[in-house]
Amino acid sequence: xxxSSLLGLxxxxxxxxxxxxxxxxxxxxxxxxxxxPSMVARNRVTNRVEAVGAKAKEMLGKTPGxxxxxxxxxxxxxxxxxxxxxxLDFFIKKAHGRSFLVRPRIIISVPSEITQVEKRAxxxxxxxxxxxxxxxxxxxxxxxxxxxxxxTEPSGNMIVDIxxxxxxxxxxxxxxxxxxxxxxxxxxxxxxAVIGYIKKKYNLLIGERTAEQIKIEIGSAxxxxxxxxxxxxxxxxxxxxxxxxxxxxxxxxxxxxxxxxTIVDTVRNALERTPPELSADIIDxxxxxxxxxxxxxxxxxxxxxxxxxxxxxxxxxxxxxxxxTGMMLTNIHLxxxxxxx
Length: 341
Fold this sequence. Notes:
CATH topology of the largest domain: Nucleotidyltransferase, domain 5
Order of helices and strands: HEEEEEHEEEHEHEHEEEHEHEEHHEHEHH
Radius of gyration: 21 Å
Helix content: 25-40%
């Protein structure tokens, strides 16, 4: 056996950010090797998986009656065990170049307020999908590590991780979580709010992919310097025909107002419950944002406005959680300290 393939087997350990919207897989020494939508297309008749990840997402809203596009994760936890197992199995094999010999040790990040039953479900699913051992770590903790915060020092660090299904807010000191709160409101909720708003205001039905596009292109949490607008296509609910429409950033901000307020309130509550000594550190260092949902335009400005604290994004916010989880593959000492049991 060549040395390179032997090393390939030895460093087969994986870190997985099993997200509601996107699953990222990180291999020790290679970095992120999979970043695909957490989605599976399944044939209702034969129960066969037709596509996983990006290919399944392309089918969203376009599938014939016998094929359904399933998001097996809901609010950061497993909603459909069988489908999640098949999805994980696919991603693990993809990460390892389809090698069936590999039984990797896997570290998975999970929302902070996950129940014992939900933890068990994540572990069992990963074991069934081919893991030899499974460790769980807190998503906010993983995001803080990935963002490069000095989490082992005796000072307060505040991280806000906004994913697809959950927003996790945590204050971390001495490698421990001093305060954490997870609300099941994040990126997906924003998409649904856009769909609801356009349906109510214009009697126009748009799909999930269109809603996500609107959020990314013209969505914002605080007034923009330059107004933006976007032409969208949907189905007129009165006449039943396809129709075009132009929406503005102001309308979409109104659509997202409630979701954004919930996220901001969660941050403010965390600040109110933080011990005074650690609050002083947060005033100096500010709040760090991570997760794909934190990329909503001017969300940092809005949080800064409402808390009076400095707010900054982690480097590449969307992958902060998986990078932090990945770092634990080589720091077993810290992993033992922060792993959730």
